Structure formats: structure tokens, C-alpha cells
Amino acid sequence: MAPSRYATFKPESIAFLSELKANNNREWFNENKARYETDVLDVALNFIQSMHDPLLEFAPHFTAIPRRMGGSLMRVYRDTRFAKDKTPYKTNVGIQFRHEMAKDVHSPGFYLHLDPDEVFVGVGLWRPDADALAAIRARIVGRSPEWLRARDDSTFRRHFRLAGESLQRPPRGFGKDHPLIEDLKRKDFIAVRNLDVHEATAPRFQQKVETSFKAAAPLMKFLCRSVGVPY
Questions:
Q1: 6-20 pLDDT, tens per residue?
Q2: What is the pTM of this model?
Q3: Neighbours of 39 (CB within 10 A)
Q4: How far apart are CA 5 and CA 11, in angstroms?
Q5: Less CB within 10 Å around the terminal CB: N or C of the chain?
Q6: What is the C-alpha separation between 178 and 132, in angstroms, rounded?
């Protein structure tokens, strides 16, 4: 039987993250670093590598970069300088397939989150900067039918629910009676699909991720057009 082209995570990946959650300190991590590299890091990098060709096919301007640092895999080390929570490590795997023109995580992207308690895929633009947010809102108002087609696309809605934070009040320059005011109040333009943790170790997990990402095309195209980058 030919090997599957689909990558997956291992039960050992979930087990390590669960143990890290219970032992989130440098001494334990250093003692178990070899396990982290074998069961989490290498597995995640293999998953990223396996997503390269599929992304090139259906979203060619988004990147799958299997590097230990500076690529699609988010660092395990937490920035605790200004945080109340001083635990040093993230207890999840975070993978972001960013746009080739992206400077940081606040850009259009596809996202995968895996931890011992939840697995989800996310798409869209999290916390866009002021210029990008203004451009998205302007396109929603100026091209409302296009936005509604993207937001309400049946395939997209079958996979995803819109998520993220919204303003309490209408943003400046928009009346509270605007028919799309709830969309205009969004601070995040993201959508999420929750999966069961056990699915992450199933043989066809990557296929499920790819299918979800493809279903997000209407939203992703709208956001890319809004901020002036190709989809």
C-alpha cells in the first residue's frame, strides 16, 4: 500500500502537550526537550511541509514554511514581559500559513491550533491594524453584495462560524442604523471551525484541514481584496 500524502499528529504529541500543561516550568521542559523535538516539533514541521503543495494549488499566495524559527510554526516560548501569567511555555501547537506579503500575525492567514483540550482551524484576519480595518469596513459598505455573498456562502457557513471581538458601539463614521452595523463593529474578521482532539491523530486529519481552508475562499478573497493583496 502506498503511503498517504497526508500528515497527521501523533498521540505522543497530545500527551506531551498535556504533560507540559501540568509541568509548565523550565526544569521539566529541559529534561523533556528531546521528547518535545521528536513528538511535537518534528511532527508539526512535517505537517507544515505536507501543506506546501496543497496551498500552492488552492491559495498560492499563502506560505507553508517548515522552519524551527521564523516560519509557519509559532514559538513554544511565551513572551512574559508584560503578562500576568509568567508560565514560560505555550501548551499548544500554533501554525499560521501567512500571506506572502504579510509582516506579522495581523495579516490574512490560515491557522491551525492544537492543544490537549481543543483543536480548531481558523481563517481570516485577526486584529487588523487601523488602515486594514478601515479598508475592510469601507469595502463592506461600498460593496455590500460582495460581502454578503462571502459571509453567507453556504459552503463557508457549513464549515465555519464568524468569531472574534467586536466594538460595543458603532465605529466612528458609521450610523447605528446601518443594516450591516454588526459586521462593521467587528475588530476581528476571523472564522473558526472546531474539531475533536482525537481527529488530529486520525489518518485524514490534513485532508479535513485542507477542505476547511478551501471552504474559506469567499471570506479570504474578500479580505485580500480589501487590503490590496492577491488571493
A1: 999 999 999 999 999
A2: 0.93
A3: 20
A4: 19
A5: N
A6: 20
